[in-house]
Design goal:
This protein is of the alpha/beta class and 392 residues long. It has two domains: 196 residues, Rossmann fold, CATH 3.40.50; 180 residues, Rossmann fold (3-Layer(aba) Sandwich), CATH 3.40.50.2000. 33% of the residues lie in helices and 13% in strands. The protein has twelve helices and 13 strands. The strands form two sheets. It has a seven-stranded parallel β-sheet. Strand 9, helix 7 and strand 10 form a beta-alpha-beta unit. It is globular. The two termini are 19 Å apart.
Length: 392
């Protein structure tokens, strides 16, 4: 198995975990591996056979992973995979798909063609820098050529969504099959901690009403493209409790936004927004299970595992209507859409969500059932079926 790099933990790493469960003895080749940067999730990779590229010999690689992507094609081309019949790459920002598979079949699970090469928002918006931009555009031109060439060496593509399938066709001129990423449904089984207090049978079925005093939840890397700032600003202005799970360069800016209140005398709102940092899986599941709804404002998301995890816990999602989210969240059934990544648009959606919630929308049992189409068991079965049909 090949993976871009193991220096952070997100949706791509959850996919890698599921792939590793299918082939637990397979070594994992990656550009960089830094357990110290994985926080509570580092333990998940203990016992794995992880082989890194020559990139680890570069100076200060821990801090320069993003600039070093100009060498990413070389990182993976230099790997000796001559002894393998099957190579499965997990590719996103780096060019893990660039590996040379001389004696076997190469299947690429593509989370997306690199966003920074094709005009999609990324964690770092280097185009805003007038000094870096001219050089960056030249480098990007050559990297797009390399990326296209690498894609032609892949035998079969798997896309993580129809959104990404369209990108693969547009940028690589290649066909692909969609296999949605996995969510461990058993771990995310929904519940409501307040449901026991409800007396009547009619109301007890509507678990969402029992959490009207609960918090909203954001789970994200704290970077610009994820638009966590608008969720923080809206909840601060409306005085709605919010918990933000994740870490990143935007943390301090978000904390300042959290201090915005509608009235300078109303200091109570300052304690309503909490930044938890990285949390363990068990803690995250509890946060999902006990929240009122999950806010997902990320722009042009490739697929988005967070909305599916929320729905697995029976919780609705207030989501920006872009990208892969349109394939998982159903407007006014399993959540609410908003159309623009702006404070005003999200504010209207929050108000609409609250009105629909009061009317008894968002049945947690239905939401949970809907999420089952993205289960880990389904993922493994579809992967094995796909691989089996191509390796006979």
């Amino acid at each position: 198995m090949i993976h871009d790099f193991l220096i952070e933990y997100g949706g791509a790493e959850r996919v890698l975990e599921a792939l590793h469960e299918i082939w637990p003895k397979a070594p994992v080749y990656t550009a960089f591996y830094n357990p110290d940067s994985l926080g509570p999730n580092a333990s998940k990779f203990k016992g794995w056979k992880i082989i890194t590229s020559w990139g680890r010999r570069l100076p200060f690689w821990q801090k320069l992973v993003s600039p070093y992507r100009i060498f990413s094609k070389s990182f993976f081309e230099s790997l000796d995979l001559s002894g393998f019949d099957l190579v499965v790459s997990s590719s996103n920002m780096y060019m893990a798909k660039a590996v040379k598979v001389l004696n076997g079949i190469h299947i690429c699970y593509c989370h997306t063609p690199p966003r920074f090469l094709y005009g999609y928002l990324t964690a770092l918006n280097w185009r805003k820098n007038p000094i870096i931009r001219p050089v960056g555009e030249v480098i990007n031109h050559f990297m797009r050529v390399w990326d296209f060439e690498s894609a032609q060496n892949v035998d079969y593509f798997i896309a993580n969504s129809k959104e990404v399938q369209a990108r693969i066709k547009k940028f690589y001129r290649r066909d692909s099959v969609v296999i949605y990423p996995p969510v461990d449904m058993k771990r995310f089984a929904f519940k409501s901690t307040n449901a026991k207090r409800l007396k009547t049978k009619a109301v007890a079925l509507d678990v969402s009403r029992s959490s009207l005093d609960s918090y909203f939840l954001v789970v994200s890397r704290l970077v610009g493209a994820k638009k966590v700032d608008i969720a923080v600003e809206v909840c601060a202005k409306l005085g709605l409790p919010l918990k933000v799970v994740g870490s990143g360069k935007e943390l301090e800016n978000l904390k300042k936004l959290a201090e915005v209140v509608p009235n300078s005398d109303d200091r109570k709102n300052l304690v309503k927004i909490e930044f938890t940092g990285e949390v363990s899986d068990d803690e995250l599941i509890k946060l999902y299970q006990n929240c009122r709804a999950v806010i997902f404002p990320a722009e042009q998301e490739d697929f988005g595992l967070v909305p599916v995890e929320a729905m697995a816990a029976g919780k609705p999602v207030i989501a920006l209507a872009q990208g892969g989210v349109l394939e998982s969240v159903i407007d006014q059934v399993t959540g609410v859409y908003f159309n623009q990544p702006t404070v005003d648009s999200l504010k209207k959606a929050m108000n609409r969500f609250i009105e629909l919630e009061k009317k008894g929308y968002f049945d947690p049992k239905f939401i949970h059932r809907h999420a089952q189409k993205f289960s880990k068991e389904r993922f493994k079965k579809e992967i094995l079926k796909f691989v089996g049909s191509r390796t006979k």
